[in-house]
What we know:
This is DUF2200 domain-containing protein. With 121 residues, the chain is mainly alpha-helical. Helices cover 61% and strands 3% of the residues. A hairpin with a 2-residue loop joins β1 and β2 (85-86).
Amino acid sequence: MDNSHKQDQRIAKMTFASVYPLYVEKVERKGRTKEELHEVITWLTGFNNKKLQELIKEKVTFEEFFRQASLNPNVHLITGVICGYRVEDIENPLTQQARYLDKLVDELAKGRKMEKILRGS
């Protein structure tokens, strides 16, 4: 089993609830809000706040989280490097989706304008 396959499996089994507080902490530490984070997650996944809270409470894995998501049609506009990988070149769809979310959270924390984070939507 190669390293990238192990990483793909690790991401698939990780719960969204375990990572969500880290996202909140990261954006708030940089002066952004939980509401802005939710706006970014909603743009990417189609989940409203109620559904997002349900998924957190149920401790769904990233695999289940993205299975239930309706990805934004402009997701292909998310490009760049996150965690040492160019997101547009990641071959495993689930890993790519998780990295899309990481990339958006990173852009929010870095102070990028919401219009640019949401790819002009």
